[in-house]
Amino acid sequence: MLLEATSLSRRYGGIAAVDAVDFSLHEGEVRAIIGPNGAGKTTLAGMICGRIEPTAGSIRFENEDITRASAPARVLRGIAYTFQVTSIYRNLSCFDNVALAAGRWITGERAVAEAVTEALARVGLSGDAARLAGVLPYGHQRLLEVAMALALKPKLLIMDEPTQGLAPAEIVAFCDLVRDVATSATVLIIEHNLKVVLELASRITVMDGGRIIAEGTPDEIEQHPAVKLAYLG
Amino acid sequence: MKSFALHAGILVVLFALQFVLPPYHHSNAARIMVYAILAVGYNVLFGYTGLMSLGHAMFFAAGAYGAGLGIFWLGLTPLAGLGLGIASGFTVSAIAGALLIRSTGVAFLIVTLMLAQAFFLSILYFNTITFGDQGLVLTQLAPIGPFALSEPWVKYNLALLSLSIALGVSLWVSQSAFGKVLVAIRENEPRTRMLGYETSLYRFAALMISGTLSSLSGALYCLLFSYVGASFASLQYSTFPLLWTLLGGAGTVIGPLIGTGLMFYLTDISSGYTSSYLLVVGFALVALTLWFPKGIAGMLRARFFPWLP
Description:
heterodimer, A: alpha/beta, B: 309 residues, globular
């Protein structure tokens, strides 16, 4: 088991955004979390990557307790995160964006440059290394953020709504990229686009009202009555 | 390499200037260089890390009083006084940094302002030791080796040497991996945390460097101009480095020096014509922010020299 969260909760005042959730990930899988707005998907992902502190429960990563570890410490353990709203350094070049990620664990200018070149090539932005990140088209900014995550050489990559705002053609390319990433890392995707989820995920977790209401293979989830009711309508 | 040559060149020009400047401007230049160290220190925090402080008077005064009180009460030599001044600034920076570890943005601004005001009031409160706002005049400073501190050329070159150190630190910050992380924090702190950087530690380190450089400026001021007063800790001395840095170009190594020199002469020249010289300075600042919002060095970088650090 790569990741194991036990009765994880996050309360905001009287509201339980995530309510005693048990959640685990196997190494190498592509997992998707789906659910309506306010289901607690982003809060759950936030607790896994350390951006949000849980009010109860524990998280283990590679059999070590990381419940109290800070977000940067978790990144060093191999948990990378891409934001729901694209978060890059708009005033820095694409190269420098990725170099900040690679530089966190690689020393030596040449080694960093190699890692940056490799990460940019993997997302198809080789030609844009010298350009300012802020001038890239939106879809490419998303790819840049993935390149930054890849340069961290994560064991677990968490992507929060990665296809939001992408054109259909870009989504197809993005799915290919995720499949490529999945060969070297476990991937956890929070996604609204059900077509993307059914195509990519090896397992799907369905959340509603802060709880997990179903979990299974894409086929099982499509047939699940509670899912049809809560999510597909 | 280019940037190293540029800054070395500027220092060489400053060195050569002392042989051609008339006495009045010679002494101004020494004063500007001392103030510029404060601005260079301020810029490490404001320009590179993106944290706006309104409390740098505290670090400046910590340096000045550390040196002044050490020399006056403990009978230290000027050099030891300088050391004590920097050590005081270092200590005050560490305390302030620990208190500010979670503060950014407006909270940072307010807490630094509050700390500096508390420092200012403490100086007034302990006036039996500090002589309050009347200040402390140091007479007959001992020479440093064969060099008498009353000699203009000694003042000038001591200021230049210290400025070189400050600019060297600033240049290192701008080129180093550490400095790149500071810029990353300025540009997008949540992203930087999620790349694995414990950003609060970087902010703390930036404050330490910035505060300690500022205290070097204060301690040097005490040595060269033989005076320490409570006004050094007043709000005015916190806004000065902010204005100098903005004018010269925040986030450039050379900007703070340009801004300090320009503002000094703006005040100097306009006060020769009118008693309301601050009005002239104010208009000049408004004009500059309108047309050069990135400051002078920032504008030069944007238009002509993209490699300027």
